[in-house]
Design goal:
This protein is α/β, with parallel strands linked by helices. The chain has helices spanning about 20-30, 50-60, 80-95, 115-120, 140-150, 175-180, 205-215, 230-240, 265-275, 290-304; strands spanning about 10-15, 35-40, 45-50, 75-80, 105-110, 130, 160-165, 190-200, 220-225, 260-265, 280-285. The strands form 2 sheets. It has a 6-stranded mixed sheet, sandwiched between helices.
Length: about 300
């Protein structure tokens, strides 16, 4: 296969992670005759929610999250890096006691590799016990928790509740699955969702996105990678794909240059289909840099 003479722009609608970003690494490195040019366009603006942070802080300070029978919660769930950042912020504020935040004896559940890496970077002696990295999505994580948490507290007829740290916008599949009324009493797990951060579209996004689109307007093709339903409306408007009357994506629009859209996973893909009647070109099978790269390159092979 001949190498492409021109790098294909990949517009990543996210804030670049520090100190390194795995998406930048994988899309900056030519591989298997594919050569990309990644650009980050931040979409989301996050802020910590005081009420939720104070509730969580109180639970940690009073050591109410542990394996004892009188605990308020027997484990934690994280499905976003932002929730981990909120947790990390509280850990940093009160560090000094070497056992803080006193969570050595409970399971902590994480939906994927990025969230797991962020959790494992939080200093704790001994380290936090993090499980679920392999699951990749909320559906699979919920099923894993039912089995793993059930075994962890197998001697309890009623499992202790789990604390799920979330943002304002989230799916409810995990609480629904764990608290399903059809489950036997000794398998059902109560879940409390505590909102520790909020999310909105950055005011600068439409302008920033327009600038990047203009800079890549002379290319033969380009990709836009979407990581969240937040910002989809602004993205589609920026691409000129929305019908003003219906608010849906106008049929037959490809644009010049050809602009292809990939999503990090099914949540964002389903949102685009439901809200805008639009099927993205690629939905990553795994919500990871490798998964997105693989989805895009497989699609591009079909264009050759």
């Amino acid at each position: 296969m001949a190498s492409s003479p021109e790098k294909v722009p990949v517009l990543l609608l996210k804030t670049v992670s520090t100190p390194t970003d795995a998406y930048e690494d994988i899309f900056s490195t030519p591989r298997d005759s594919f050569s990309f040019e990644p650009t980050f366009v931040p979409v989301l603006q996050h802020k910590f929610e005081d009420d939720g942070m104070q509730q969580f802080e109180k639970l940690l300070r009073e050591r109410r999250i542990n394996k004892n029978s009188d605990s308020a919660y027997g484990g934690l769930i994280f499905t976003s890096q932002r929730a981990v950042e909120a947790f990390s912020k509280l850990v940093d504020e009160y560090k000094g006691d070497e056992d803080w935040p006193h969570l050595q004896d409970i399971p902590i559940y994480s939906v994927g590799p990025a969230t797991t890496r962020a959790l494992k970077a939080i200093p704790q002696t001994p380290p936090l016990q993090v499980f679920g990295e392999h699951t990749g999505n909320g559906d699979a994580l919920a099923q894993f928790i039912l089995e793993h948490y059930g075994e962890w507290y197998k001697y309890r007829s009623t499992k202790p509740p789990l604390l799920f740290l979330v943002g304002e916008q989230r799916r409810d599949i995990i609480p629904k699955t764990l608290m399903d009324e059809n489950l036997p009493d000794n398998q059902r797990i109560a879940v409390t969702e505590t909102v520790v951060y909020g999310t909105g579209v950055m005011e600068s996004f439409p302008r920033d996105f327009a600038d990047v689109l203009q800079k890549t307007a002379t290319r033969q093709s380009r990709w836009v990678v979407v990581f969240s339903p937040t910002g989809c409306d602004s993205m589609l408007k920026g691409l000129g794909m929305l019908d003003d009357e219906t608010g849906k994506v106008a049929k037959g629009i490809q644009g010049n240059p050809a602009t292809y859209i990939a999503t990090i996973g099914p949540t964002t893909r389903n949102y685009l289909k439901r809200a805008f009647d639009y099927e993205p070109n690629v939905c990553a099978e795994k919500p990871s840099p490798e998964g997105v790269w693989h989805g895009i390159t497989e699609f591009m092979k079909g264009l050759r």
